[in-house]
Amino acid sequence: MADILTPTLGESVSEATIAKWSKKVGDAVRKDETLVELETDKVSLEVVSPTDGTLGAIHFAEGDTVTPGAILGAVTEGAAATGPANAAPAPVAAAPTPAPAAAAPSGGSANTGSAAFKAPAADAALSPSVQRIVTENNLDASAIAPTGPKGNITKGDALAAAAKPAAGIATSAPARATAPAPAPAVAVAPRADQPREERVKMTRLRQTIARRLKESQNTAAQLTTFNEVDMTTVMALRTQYKDAFEKAHGVKLGFMSFFTRAVVAALKEIPAVNAEIDGTDIIYKNHYDIGVAVGTEKGLVVPVLRDADTLSLAGIEKGIAALGKAARDGDLTLDQLQGGTFTITNGGTYGSLMSTPILNAPQSGILGMHNIVQRPMAVNGQVEIRPMMYLALSYDHRIVDGKEAVTFLVRIKQLLEDPARALLDL
User: Fold this and answer.
1) CA dist 367 → 34, 321, 405, 425 (Å)
2) Which of these is catalytic: 335, 401, 418, 425?
3) Could you tell me which residues come within 8 angstroms of residue 354 by beta carbon, excluding any fewer than 6 positions away?
4) Is 295 in the same domain as 389?
5) What's the CATH number where 233 sits?
6) Beta-carbon neighbour count of residue 380 at 10 Å?
7) How far apart are the C-alpha atoms of 323 and 328, rounded to whole Å?
8) What is the pLDDT of residue 98?
9) N or C: which terminal CB in the chain sees fewer CB atoms within 10 Å?
């Protein structure tokens, strides 16, 4: 039988959730055919069959958490229809796993089953969520009975241990018996559902979005400054050249290319907005990788347009179009979601008039674009109707001063209202 392995999930991604099995035990499969879809904190990954044959075993059910290298199941090579006979071993293969892990502290060999993933429980690396519970509740990880499929401690194991503080620490430290009493995880129990309500489990992506946004608010000293830009000139250029532009480059001329070029020029003048804080150091980025927020059915993702300073308007439009399509189709790679230095988000596509965007940590700045609205404006002493857009720059006040933030936003306004400045380096 050929094992189905969890692939490498990418930098800083330590676990994934089984989102969906495309096949059942006993189904015929072909080499490179998708068998299971994994959902990580950032993207969805498809795991394919390593060979032709039948799906002989499934070791993890939908909703289970797995780590890189874990054996998800197995494919019986050839066309033998032995699937039903192999259906039973799937749960059996997982059931004996805790026993070797429990015996591991004695130093014996825990090599029954999947030997590569039977590290002793006391030495096994804890997942971030488990480590957090263990630390907050002052638990002894070696005393927690693991029930994970690889002899690992699951979040449920840690929560159960936290709920029984007396049994875990009374004999060794009676004075501390009240320390784990708060047991925050136990206190946050799901409330009872009410009539006409529906409970739906958050996807891993949505959980990650929620966690990162809250961490961003808790970490950075966020402040937002506003300005407005007259879009008359940009809109006139777009109207005049959009047909010729599309014919020449095979892509439509939108507003994002103008904004991206203006942002890059402003970042070069105000480098603090393109930097990040690392401990007590400031890291200045001498490259301009612009994140572009894209709304998808699964949630908001921010793919990165690399080296935007080297791209023409056509190159920017093509790059953004390709990233947007990949995001909506679920085809983004981890590399396309990492390493951005600054982010642009366009709430105007949904009709937003004004907002205060949250930083995409660890970046120090994010530009919010909004809806273009015809408004009366005073121009040379006369009232004229102009297409106006509010701009919002949220920034980390720990590294970016108010003067720099305002100057940055004013520079973008100047370059959009008078694009010739960019051509003349003014």
Assistant:
1) 39, 19, 11, 22
2) 401
3) 226, 370, 390, 392
4) yes
5) 3.30.559.10
6) 5
7) 9
8) 40
9) C
The boundaries of the domain holding residue 51 are: 2-95
* Beta partners for residue 299, in sequence order: 296
C-alpha distances out from residue 422 to 259, 404, 412, Å: 12, 20, 11
* CB contact at 8 A, 142 and 117: no
Strand 304-305 versus strand 382-396 pairing type: unpaired
Query: Per the structure block, which two tokens stand in for 211?
Result: 């966690």
Shared-domain flag, residues 189 and 331: no
Q: How far apart are the first and last CA of the chain?
A: 67
| Single-letter amino acid, residue 263 | V
| Token pair in block for residue 371 | 């809806």
Beta strands 290-292 and 304-305: pairing type? antiparallel
DSSP 3-state assignment of 144?
coil
Kind plus residue range of the DSSP H or E element containing 226: strand 222-230
What are residue 366's DSSP bridge partners? 343, 394
Identify each DSSP E strand in 95-165 by its residue range: none
Q: List, for residues 162-204, the tens digit of each pLDDT value.
A: 776 444 333 343 444 444 554 554 456 778 888 888 888 887 7
**What are the pLDDT digits (tens) for 240-297?**
999 999 999 999 999 999 999 999 999 999 999 999 999 899 999 999 999 999 888 8
Q: How far apart are CA 372 and CA 235, in angstroms?
A: 10
User: What is the signed CA dihedral for 96, 97, 103, 104, rounded to 10 degrees?
Assistant: 160
From 236, 238, 276, 280, select the one nearest 257 (Cα to Cα): 238
Cβ contact 217:357 at 8 Å: no
Contact yes or no for 61/25 (Cβ under 8 A): no
Residues 52-73, mean pLDDT to the nearest whole number: 86
Query: Catalytic site residue 401?
Result: yes
Strands 294-296 and 299-301 turn out to be antiparallel
Which of 201, 229, 259 is at the close of a domain?
A: 201
Let me know whether 332 and 237 are in one domain: yes
Which residue among the candidates 249, 289, 309, 397 is catalytic per the annotation? 397
> 352 and 334, same structural domain?
yes
Examine the domain organization and report whether 229 and 314 are in the same domain.
Answer: yes
In angstroms, the CA 32 to CA 29 distance is 9
Catalytic, 59? Answer: no
